[in-house]
Amino acid sequence: IPGRHTYAKYNTWDKIVAWTEKMVHKHPEMVSRIKIGTTIEDNPLYVLKIGTGDERRKAIFMDCGIHAREWISPAFCQWFVYQAAKSYGKNKIMTKLLDRMNFYVLPVFNVDGYIWTWKQNRMWRKNRSRNLNSKCIGTDLNRNFNASWNSFPDTNKPCGETYAGPAPESEKETRAVTDFIRKHRKSLEAYITIHSYSQMVLFPYGYTAKLPPDQEELTKVAKVSTDALSSRYETRYIYGSIASTIYRTSGSSLDWAYNLGIKHTFAFELRDKGRFGFLLPESQIKSTCKETMLAVKYIAKYILRHAS
Amino acid sequence: VPPVRFDREKVLHVNLQDEKQANVLKGLADTHELDFWYPDAPHHVAGNMTVDFRVSEKEFQSVQLALDQHEMRYEILIHDLQEVIEKQFDVKED
């Protein structure tokens, strides 16, 4: 028995698994659980599908917890699923969204790493796969995608925190996600990935300073979503392409999803600006999730109105 | 294996003024075990950037000395990481 799940606190992996079952049981017409693969330590990778329609509808894929120590990220995915399911039939906008599109939510991408942060090392970032010819463990899953993979220095050292892995999509978690997204490519209109920290909304590219062809639209959506986010508690976010806003990176999920043809791709870097960093107190979970919800809902509304 | 503890480990917030200071910090990363929080790796460090990193209690003094010697502006964001890890659970079980 994993103990009680609560949205106001950080939850262990066991509690999150039990929570996914509870959500399906409580909202069978709205929520279903799809096992998209397993990790190297044989933990399941679950995606929750939220929505009333079949798989041909427009959809948004959102993942959380690609970096193990960014605990606020899985907390947001849980909050999102709860709020979406709870407000269906009560909130006009959410009802409209769920009547017309599906959300696929991966609450924890890096399951083994997340478990490791709870049991052994709160500061762990990568997954837990063994590396050939090295005593160091783990690959940075957000460098493991096939988007200019391993083209920058320091991503080829297994002991480094940003190790890209031995090959693109070498990791079971990456492969499970890319297979799922490729399979649902036709319906997917947006890809959102949730990180922490530094308060930003980012869009492609990371691997080049070149801006994507849709940069005007992406800039507009990112701007309005940060405006929506700050309307609740005046939390200031900045926005822009990864390369121009932070620094150039290779092998990110965001660039990969964009190059696959999902034209609305955004990465959120949630609270805070560095006061707590990866150790955002639980007392800030609710407010962080509430404001982020406004931004994600705006993106969903935009997709519904404008996407093909 | 007991869980890793972070007693008296620090998180520093450094305001880099130029490339020279960025190179000093990159050099420190070569000789010390620094865990980069932002940016997420030393090769991303550049002039006119703020950098957050974690350093052990043992290595803190020599890092601080190097920062002072090069007149680099910094702030200690977290004085005892273990304490902050415990304090993040600040909501009581309902």
Describe this structure in words.
The complex is a heterodimer of chains A (308) and B (94). With 308 residues, chain A is α/β, with parallel strands linked by helices. Chain A contains nine helices and eight strands. Chain A has helices spanning 13-26, 72-87, 92-100, 111-119, 172-183, 215-233, 242-245, 253-260, 285-306; strands at 31-38, 44-50, 58-64, 101-106, 188-196, 200-203, 238-241, 264-270. In chain A, strands 1-2-4-3-5-8-6-7 form an eight-stranded mixed β-sheet, with helices on both faces. Chain B is built from three helices and four strands. Chain B has helices at residues 19-31, 57-69, 81-87, and strands at 10-15, 35-38, 50-55, 73-78. The longest helix of chain B is centred in the N-terminal third of the chain and has 13 residues, at 19-31. The interface between A and B is medium-sized, with 34 and 32 residues.
**Percent range of helical residues of chain A:** 25-40%
Largest sheet of chain B: 4 strands, antiparallel
The value of Rg of chain B in angstroms is: 15 Å
Q: What share of the residues of chain B lie within helices?
A: 25-40%
Biggest sheet, spatial arrangement of strands of chain A: 1-2-4-3-5-8-6-7
Strand content of chain B: 15-25%
Mean pLDDT of chain B: 96
